[in-house]
Amino acid sequence: MKQLAPDLKREIQRIMRDDRGRLLSALIRSLGDFELAEDALSDATERALIHWGRNGLPSRPDGWLLQVARRAAIDRIRKRKRHAARAPDLTLLMQEDEAARAMDAPDIPDERLRLIFTCCHPALEEKTRVALTLRTVGGLTTREIARAFLDTEVAMGQRLSRAKTKIAGSGIPYAVPERPDWDQRLNSVLTVIYLIFNEGWTAGAGTEPIRGTLCDEAIWLTRLMTRLAPDEAEIEGLLALMLLSHGRRSARYDALGTFLPLDAQDRTLWDRPMIDEGLAFLDMAVARRLPGPFQLQAAINALHVQAETAEATDWPQILLLYDRLAALAPSPVVDLNRAVALAEAGALDRARRHLDALARDLDRYQPFHAARADLARRAGDRPMAIAAYDRAIGLTTSAADRAWLLQKRNAL
Fold it and tell me: Is the pLDDT of residue 99 over 60?
C-alpha cells in the first residue's frame, strides 16, 4: 500500500474516530453480535485505508464504511462452519446491503441510545456495563477504559470479552426499555455518557487537547435523554454539568497547547450562552428537589463559572457541596477533589493528610499526584513536590498535560 498523504491520513483517522460509535451501533443492530460487528468494522477500516489512499475520500465516507462493513460481515458469516444457523441474519443483512447499494448516500440509523441501554442491562455488573459502553459507543480503546477505572489493560480486556459473550448467549434484547423499566439502568447510562464526555474533555491520549466530538456526542445523547424522560432531575443535572464544563473549553489551553488550570484561564473566552444554558438546566433539576451526584457536581461547577475571578470563588460553599457528594456517592476521586477544596478553603495541612490517606487507592491516578505535588509546593515541601510531579508526569498520556506538569516541576 502506498503511503498516505498526511492530510488524508489525518482525515481518515478523524472519520474513523468520530463515526465509529454510530457505525458500530448500526452494525450491532443488524447483526445482533458485538464481536462480528467489531470485526466487520475493522475489516472495513483496513479496506478504507487502501481504497481511499488510491482513490481519495468518497462523498459519504461513513456510508462507504457501513456498506463495506456489511459486506465483510456477510463474508464472515458465510465462512462460519455453522453459518446455516444464522441464515435469517444473513438474508436480512444481504437485503439491507442491496438497499444501501441502491442509494447514492445511504443514511446511517442512529442506534447509539439503544446500544447504551443494551450495554447497561442489569444482567451485567455495573463496572462491566460502563466499560462495554465506553468501548462500543464511545470508541475508547481498552487501554483508555482501563485508565478510567484505574485498572490494568489485560484485566479490562478480559472483562469486555466476557461481557460480549454473556450478551450473545443470554438473549439480552437490543432495545430501549419502556419508561417504567429505566430505573435499573439509568444510573449506568448516565455514568457512561459522562465518562464519554470526560474522555473527550480530558483527551487522555495523544496530542489533541480536547476530543470535541466525544463531548458533543455525550451532550447530544443527554439532550435526547431529557426528551425521553423530561421529569428526571439527574438527567438535567448531567446535561448542566457537561454544558458548564464545555463552556470553558476555549480557555483550557494556551496557544502552544499547554493545559491551563481554572485559576489561570481567561474568563472572557468562556462560552457564556452555553454556560447560561447549563445554569438553566441546573435550576430546573434543583427545583425538583431530588438531589443526586450529577446535580451536586453541576452545582460545584456553577460556583466556579459564576465567580468573576478565581480569587472570588466561594470555596467554603464548594467544600460543603463536596461533603454532600461524598455522603451521597463516596469514592476516592470525590475525596481527592474534596481535599483540594479543603486546601483552597484554607486548611492546607488537613488537606495534605487527607491526600496521604488516599495514596494507595489513587496511586495510578495522575490527577492525584498532580494535586499532591501542588499542595506540597504550597507547603514548601520541595522534595515531596518534585517526587509527586515526577510520578504525575510518568502517568500522563496527554501531551498538553505533560507540558503543564513539566512547567510546574521546572519552576520549583
Answer: no
* 222 within domain boundaries: yes
Exposure string over 162-184, b if 16+ CB within 10 A, otherwise e: ebbeebeeeeeebebbeeeebee
Q: Is residue 49's pLDDT more than 90?
A: no
Instruction: Judge whether 318 lies within some domain.
Output: no
Q: Nearest 5°: phi and psi at 125?
A: -70, 160
Residues 349 and 381 grouped into a single domain: yes
**CA 354, CA 338: separation in Å to the nearest integer?**
9
Expressed in angstroms, the distance from the first to the final Cα of the chain is 50
Residues 92 and 118 in one domain: no
Packing angle of the helix pair 366-378, 382-395 (nearest 10 deg) = 160
174 and 263 within one domain = no
- Confirm if 92 and 46 have CB atoms less than 8 A apart: no
For the chain, the maximum distance between any two Cα atoms, rounded to a whole number of angstroms, is 72
pTM above threshold 0.70: yes
Total count of domains within the chain: 4
Q: How confident is the model at residue 214 (pLDDT cuts 50, 70, 90)?
A: confident
Q: Are 298 and 240 in contact, with CB atoms under 8 Å apart?
A: yes
Hey, is 259 helix, strand or coil? strand
One-letter identity of residue 133: T
Eight-class DSSP state of 253: B
Domain containing 390 equals 326-412
Nearest C-alpha neighbor of 371 from the set 396, 351, 395, 350: 351
For 5, residues 6+ apart whose C-beta sits below 8 A from its C-beta are: none
